[in-house]
Amino acid sequence: MLAITETWIQQDDSASVAALSYGGLHFSHCSRPENRQGGVVGILLSPRCTFQVIPPVPSLTFPSFEVHNLRLFHPFSLRVAVVYRPPGSPYQFLDHFASWLSHFLSCDIPTIIMGDFNIPVNTPISPPASQLLALTTSLGLSQLCDSPTHSEGNILDLVFSRPSSISFFDQINFY
């Protein structure tokens, strides 16, 4: 499984989706609304994975971030979300993310949430970082990425999971 953020793939771009689906891979993604540029998040999955897209809940679709949700059924049961938060004010995002996260975590299924949050959590004294980490910790999530994911040495790409969820994986790589 590979989470991809900022793909810039348009809804009608079947050539890019086909290229990503080479060799039987599955590329599941959602597009940005037509009036917004950039972004787009997706998940590339092995051909042996059986999954279903979790449709967005209209009342939990926010302008401060994009999210694509899947439910994996095989080879194991897992809820997966890939998130992209564009640079800008994180405070509106934190309120929106808290609402979305409470809903997403309402199922007692192993869960992984990953993506580009554009909040450097390696400087936890910054209010946005400390608030994001406090929120996720209060909901029983652990942040798994502990090495820089940005050229300036910051950790912007994050992976959150409940401790019981990560037992599925022998290894998690961050790039």
Automatic annotation (TrEMBL):
Domain of life: Eukaryota
Ranges where the Endonuclease/exonuclease/phosphatase domain occurs: 2-163
GO molecular function: catalytic activity
Lineage: Eukaryota, Metazoa, Chordata, Craniata, Vertebrata
Official protein name in the record: Endonuclease/exonuclease/phosphatase domain-containing protein
Pfam family, one: Exo_endo_phos
